[in-house]
Amino acid sequence: MWSKTYSKTVKGLSAEQVWKVWTDLNQWHTWQSDIEYAKLEGEFKVGNTFLLKPKGGPQVKIEIIQVAENKQFVDLTRFPGARMYGSHEFVIHGDELEIKTTMSIEGWLSLLWRKLVAEDVANGMSEQTANLIEKAKNV
């Protein structure tokens, strides 16, 4: 399994503020410059799926597989021969909030999908986290 983690620690921001932005998938395009849209029909809960259309790429269906409100969610994208997981979590350190994202991919074709998709997603995590923080400050 291949995995890459990015984290950033900030002061003056609550887990609830960031959670509100993270779980409003239909507005992700307003702070993620690399996607055209994300569409969730229904609630943000385990078992539900959403569609995500990266700029310049095909639409993908992503399943929400784990939710711990104001703490973490994990999503799963299935590719032929591989599964890509996105883990999005908060760690509280006193008056600071650590925002951590981990992308991982496994399966017999994981090397192919790592090169085609996962590395690009992982390489954008720092910018995405910075944009998330700015958006959450206004919640």
What would you say this structure looks like, in words?
By secondary structure, the chain is of the alpha+beta class. The protein has one domain: START domain (Alpha-D-Glucose-1,6-Bisphosphate, Chain A, domain 4, 2-Layer Sandwich), CATH 3.30.530.20. The chain is built from 3 helices and 7 strands; from the N terminus they run E-H-E-E-E-E-E-E-H-H. The protein has helices spanning 15-22, 110-123, 125-137, and strands spanning 2-11, 35-40, 49-54, 60-68, 72-79, 82-93, 96-106. The chain has a 7-stranded antiparallel beta sheet. The longest helix has 14 residues, at 110-123.
The coarse silhouette is globular
Tell me the number of helical segments per DSSP (H or I, 4 or more residues long): 3
CATH-level-4 superfamily name:
START domain
Would you identify the regions where 5 or more consecutive residues have pLDDT less than 50? none
Q: What share of residues is helical?
A: 25-40%
How many domain regions? Answer: 1
Q: Determine Rg (CA atoms, Å).
A: 14 Å
The overall average pLDDT, rounded, is 95
The secondary-structure class comes to alpha+beta
Query: What's the main sheet like?
Result: 7 strands, antiparallel
Strand content: 35-45%
Terminal residue distance: 36 Å
Number of strands: 7
